[in-house]
Predict the structure of Ribosomal RNA small subunit methyltransferase H.
Amino acid sequence: MASQDASHISVLLREVMEVLSPKDGGIYVDGTFGAGGYSRAILEAADCQVFGIDRDPLAISKGQKMADEFPGRLIMIEGCYADMEELLAGQGVAAVDGIALDIGVSSMQIDEAERGFSFMREGPLDMRMSGKGRTAAEIVNEESEAELARIIFVYGEERRSRAIARAVAERRELAPFKSTVELAEVVASVVRPTGKGIHPATRTFQALRIVVNDELGQLVKGLAASERLLTPGGRLAVVSFHSLEDRRVKNFLSARSEGRARPSRHVPVSDEGPAPTFKLIKRGTIKARPDELAVNPRSRSARLRGAIRTNASAWTEAA
């Protein structure tokens, strides 16, 4: 396998490949192409075809170079994985044998200061994966203090959300926020370090990134699209990095594998409901092995869930 930049190593690569089990003649989707680690591994594991999807134009541009290595086997598509049905239909594809999703921001995006994802690097407060829509700066400078507190609490799970929002509102009265470091310094002024090496601004930046890119909405749509696209026996591998993402993946696969909706663990399940559309490969999550943890710090928070598509019809929204 071709070597990768250490900062761009795909997390849980071996485990994702074990879940997908690529086969000759198969059609696979790398819904969050990034630096292309999963796509390359799939293409080298079997004589198959991969559709690499990414909303980031830079990822698509770099992916075209990889496509040249695999003529006719790697097809790059610019767009959101949540829209993969429509994107694949444009390529004449209505069903696939496997889908890999690595949810969240890529290390490639974090490493580029001008993208505004990192609180450790000076750059414009942007955070847009596609380069379109509202920036993080616009949200920070324009939303009310109450709405900022809500965003930071709900999407960052930050207990000090009100104090952060208050400090942000006071600071922007003097001058609007323009850079990542400006915001990180204000957050750090009211949030104490945890002692675990986690930067005080981590949760705030996470919250803004999620809202800017509608990441949770995209995830919900993407999971439903995966259910409709996968053939019987098709495999789904989803890697997430925090509880907000993993909880949605868990709830989706739990309901689909049980064959009945369960709104809460405190509410009894109903025996009536649509047939199971997935079979779990493993209950719970798959985590990084010690050797990967030693070389790839990003893998510490990574959680993989995998499932195999049954031959039952995809659930309707009402189900």
Observations:
- The two ends are 43 Å apart (CA to CA).
